[in-house]
Design a protein that fits this description.
The chain is mainly β. The chain has a domain of 52 residues: SH3 type barrels. It has no helices and eight strands. A three-stranded antiparallel beta sheet has the order 3-4-5, with no helix packed on it. Strands 6-7-8 form a three-stranded antiparallel beta sheet, with no helix packed on it. A hairpin with a 4-residue loop joins strand 6 and strand 7. The termini are far apart.
Length: 120
């Protein structure tokens, strides 16, 4: 319980209250408090999310006829056009993600696909 001490001053025959001194912290709650609960966030797993299953995406037909490798900016030849990393393939709308020695990774409708050169 909060306890107050009153200081009294007698001045010229008049009794005055001059100050209150507190023995306890006035900001501490007087009622018992429960410890704070830890907030946890759970990430929903894709299997538990309600909704239709994702559609099967197929990559449109395209021919990877060459890979220019070993330079600062590797290039590929797809459907007789030259592309670099980050380019959009005109015939399909797929984006070139990565160019490696014998494999090109493209992203089409948020899914990754790999292309390999066609042997002649």
């Amino acid at each position: 319980m909060l306890k107050l001490k009153m200081c009294l001053i007698f001045m010229a025959g008049v009794l005055c209250y001059s100050a209150f001194a507190l023995e306890e912290d006035p900001f501490v709650p007087m009622l018992p408090q429960e410890p704070p609960k830890k907030q946890t966030t759970e990430i929903a797993k894709s299997s538990s999310v309600a909704g239709p299953p994702p559609e099967a995406v197929t990559l449109p037909a395209m021919v990877l006829s060459g890979v220019l490798w070993g330079t600062d900016k590797p290039m590929v030849i797809i459907d007789d056009k030259v592309y670099g990393v980050g380019s959009i393939i005109v015939s399909s709308g797929a984006k070139i993600h990565k160019i490696e020695k014998n494999v090109v990774t493209v992203i089409y409708k948020m899914q990754k696909f790999t292309l390999t050169p066609v042997a002649k």
